[in-house]
Amino acid sequence: MEYRTLGRSGLKVSTLTMGTMTFGGAGAFSAVGKTDLDEARRMIDLCIDAGINVIDTANVYSNGISEEIIGEALGGKRKGDVLIASKARMRIGKGPNDEGLSRHHLIRECEKSLKRLKTDVIDIYFLHEWDGVTPLEETIAALDTLVAQGKIRYVGCSNYSGWQVMKALGISDSHYQPRFVTQQIHYTLEAREAEYELLPISVDQGLGVLVWSPLAGGLLSGKYRRDSPTARQLAGWSEPPIRDEDRLWRIVDVLVEIGTQRGVSAAQVALAWLLGRPAVSSLVIGARNEAQLKDNLAAASLVLTDDERSRLDAVSRPPLLYPYWHQQLTAKDRFGPADLVLDRSGI
């Protein structure tokens, strides 16, 4: 297992992170998976044995049950150098303050997560989603309080737009308060929108990137092909949205072709492509069963050739939106490292 420094921190994270959205299977999350405590223990041990050192969860996963299962599975003790990442922001109750990033909600939910996880500290604490109502100054000050109290160590954001990330970083810098060291984003061969703003920001501002749902909810696993609905779709789970199905299946065709040639699964090829992208620190992998988990774990050692990467780039290249096409025509002689993240070869 390879370990990468998380952004401008000194923290080393494994290139694969264990995702636990399947733990519990309560409410809407039953469409994703129903991993119970015994199976969770086996999966956690499997991941740790493979060298994974990050377990990712959130207070909203099965309404806290995912965190409870992790706490029980670890027995209140950290195994080796295991890091725990969790999140808050989503609605977690029926009250008026049971969602958002207010000081009230954020500190309360962090303290609840600590109890469920049976730990004194959360290593990486993510703002799970943007909150356009709460002033960012209040949110970042609350994170500062939690860091000062020793309840969290590093902070990050998830599902923010480019301007939202930069506004938060500006506030942190001007107030000398904790700065995001990482983003957790959706980024796949099928969904490369992050290359417009989020990945360049990560390169420019020194943010690590954790990728959630790196197989697009199983769509890039190679298990599903044209005219065969996925398990999540059959269960009514709508993430991620697919706007061009023909493009999706062309991407899957290439993944399967490369996987067959290399003697590996299409899923491993899709994960290996992501691990070669700029600023990517770790991929959050989840699984419905141990067989899926073992297959995903094997991606950590797969290195694609330049030709294989070129084939995947060509079939998945995003359109060059404005102002990027204009910059490509008039400014490419002065591009910096962050500018070069976006694939502009299609113009």
Short account of what is shown:
The chain has helices at residues 37-49, 65-74, 103-117, 136-148, 162-175, 198-205, 231-234, 245-262, 266-275, 290-297, 306-316, 324-330, and strands at residues 3-5, 12-14, 16-19, 54-56, 83-88, 122-127, 152-158, 180-186, 208-212, 280-285. The chain is α/β, with parallel strands linked by helices and 347 residues long. Keywords: Oxidoreductase.
Detailed description of the structure:
This protein has 347 residues and is of the alpha/beta class. It has 2 domains: 3-313, NADP-dependent oxidoreductase domain (TIM Barrel); 317-347, no CATH class. It is 38% helix and 14% strand. The protein contains 12 helices and 10 strands. The chain has helices at 37-49, 65-74, 103-117, 136-148, 162-175, 198-205, 231-234, 245-262, 266-275, 290-297, 306-316, 324-330, and strands at residues 3-5, 12-14, 16-19, 54-56, 83-88, 122-127, 152-158, 180-186, 208-212, 280-285. The strands form 2 sheets. The protein has an 8-stranded parallel beta barrel with strand order 3-4-5-6-7-8-9-10, surrounded by 6 helices. Strands 1-2 form a two-stranded antiparallel sheet. α4 links the parallel β6 and β7 (152-158). It is globular, with a radius of gyration of 20 Å. It starts with a strand and ends in a 17-residue tail after the last helix. 43% of the residues are buried. Keywords: Oxidoreductase. It holds the Pfam family Aldo_ket_red. InterPro entries: AKR, AKR_Detox_Biosynth, NAD(P)_OxRdtase_dom_sf, NADP_OxRdtase_dom. One of its GO terms (cellular component) is cytosol. GO terms for molecular function: oxidoreductase activity.
